[in-house]
Amino acid sequence: MTKISAAVDSLLSAKAVRERAHEMLAAAEAGQLSHFTLHLDRLDATAAFVAKVIQENYPSLEVPLHARWRHFKLGGEDLWAPIDIKTQWADKAARARAAFDLAMVSVLLDAGAGPDWRYRDGATGLQVGRSEGLALASLRMFETGAFSDDAKDPLRADAKRLAAFTADDLAVGFQVRDGNPLTGLEGRAALIARLGQAALDNPAVFAMHDRARPGGLFDDVAAIAGSGASLPAPQILRSVLLHLGPIWPGRISLDGVSLGDTWRHPAIKRSDETNGLIPFHKLSQWMTYSLVEPLQDAGVKVTDFDGLTGLAEYRNGGLFVDAGVIALRDPSAATRGHEPGSELVVEWRALTVALLDKIALLVRDKLHLDAARFPLGAALEGGTWAAGRRLANEKRPGGPPPIHVISDGTVF
What we know:
The chain is mainly alpha-helical. The protein has one domain.
């Protein structure tokens, strides 16, 4: 495993995300944030709304984890299932590697699409935007071998092919053209190319039983679990963060290691090199949630789902803004674009993570469920993400987020 310093190690975890997000919440409770005020008296009503959405979406209250696989279900049909069923997998590991390939590529293509982009699916006639459209487009590219080096073996993502991936490739697969623009096209394609290069550069992890591919991470993670042992979800995240660190664009590095989705804010106080730093690892945690099911299907027992955090993205964050739990000190700031590294966006994302912990407790209480049956990932799926989208659609035509983030396609 990659050798890293103690300072870096302290930031590459969901624990660091949670601890530092709650420090931001404490600063908000003390009225010390520059851009947001906090109104916890509105959290209970927000939780009641989320519970209502969950009951409507999942009347049985059997809610799956918030994962990329949910977005492959459109129009009442699971579009991955027939592909999976008709494929003659060599064994469970081969199936899991393919599922890892699909999930990892699809998650990295999942940052906000923008309000105007749509994908038209020839097979179903569906025309879909946002996360579901991105999922469908990536699934169809995977199904047709767009990420494979072998025409006879399309259901894979080969590192060599990914490393050569271009914005033009993505534009074709995602039907991007005049009148159908996709936010962050170049950034998304570059992220996929860096994923391929990272796999090529680390054959010990990504080419253990096959030529280099993102799905090779399955073998590494399964080996950590060992035969018959359980695997804590935070350990999956750690592998993702350690082995995929090089894919993130040049942001903050520490001791020569890219910290990925980590940003600066003065409210975070430390006496070491991590002073002022707050990680979110949004796409990495979204990926981790999405790798759980392939691991479970392959016989790996995954535990400690609540060791992960909520996702610092605009649907969850928008829920708290639109419900009035947090409010901009300057309402006009909502009409301006903000860079991901701005203090305003960092505050918004941190408050989102901490408030998701709080609202999950309230929602469980209202639904009479415990954490074992209803982990945080289920609250997201059921849940806060859906409730955030619903409020956005009620308040703004087309349902854009309440605050505009200038995204390069690699954060939100």
